[in-house]
Amino acid sequence: MIAQLRGTLIEKTHSEAVVDCGGVGYAVSISLATYEQLPELDGKIQLFTHLIPREDALNLYGFSTTAEREAFLMLTSISGIGPKSALAILSSLTLFELRDYILRNNLLALQKMPGIGKKTAERLIIELRDKVGKLSLSESVDVSFIGAQKLIQQDALAALISLGYNKLVAEKSIKAAASEPGAENITTDQLIKKALRFAAQ
User: How many whole angstroms separate alpha carbon 103 and alpha carbon 54?
Assistant: First the structure.
């Protein structure tokens, strides 16, 4: 089992990172939350990983924290939630939000997640209620919205929704645009334009 990778980041997209470890490049599927924590290319990186063997492939999933990996394993233990769905959920919610929704029995919020219907949302609450409270969130970074950027991103989100974009698509596009180099001082208009490009992909 490959539980951790340390090496150099040589490729990255919003769903995959390639890590060079001793001359071997490992392709790792990641969530948007982990993508936002990646260094620039050629930077040193550590990912906590989980390997899922299939008949035709060995699929490696990587996470910026052990807490996110724990959450991934919890999610994939639920009938109806596979690795791709789990990553989609972790891309849409922070770990704090996921824990809060489950502990508060927020069925409606969970049903808004990609691929989650009412029955699966009910299973999430029933089966994970006693587990999510044990997640080590002290090491986890809440990358949703912080400081002044929160207001800018919220304004951009409202703009994309008013243009007819699905809320989840709008949120992902804004997070992706806000994670680009130099985005720390971005204006609302600039963020909207960048997010629209991601939404159109």
Answer: 33
Residue 149, pLDDT score: 67
pLDDT of residue 148: 55
Q: Cβ–Cβ contacts within 10 Å for residue 88, how many?
A: 22
Tokens of 59: 């699929």
For the chain, list residues with pLDDT below 70: 136-151
73 and 134 both lie in a single domain: yes
Is 71 in the same domain as 133?
Answer: yes
Residues with Cβ within 8 Å of 88's Cβ and at least 6 positions away in sequence, in order, are 113, 114, 115
Among 26, 14, 23, which Cα is nearest to 180's?
14
79 and 120 assigned to the same domain: yes
Reported pTM: 0.68
Helix (H) or strand (E) holding 58: strand 58-63
Q: Which domain holds residue 108?
A: 66-139
**Number of domains the chain is built from:** 3
**Spatial distance between the Cα atoms of 114 and 35, rounded to a whole number of angstroms:** 18
Q: Between vectors from CA 131 to CA 126 and to CA 135, what angle results, nearest 5°? A: 140
CATH of the domain at 10: 2.40.50.140
pLDDT score, position 10? 97
Each residue of 81-105: pLDDT tens digit?
A: 999 999 999 988 888 888 888 988 9
Same domain, 47 and 104: no
Residue that is written with structure tokens 């919610």 in the block: 93
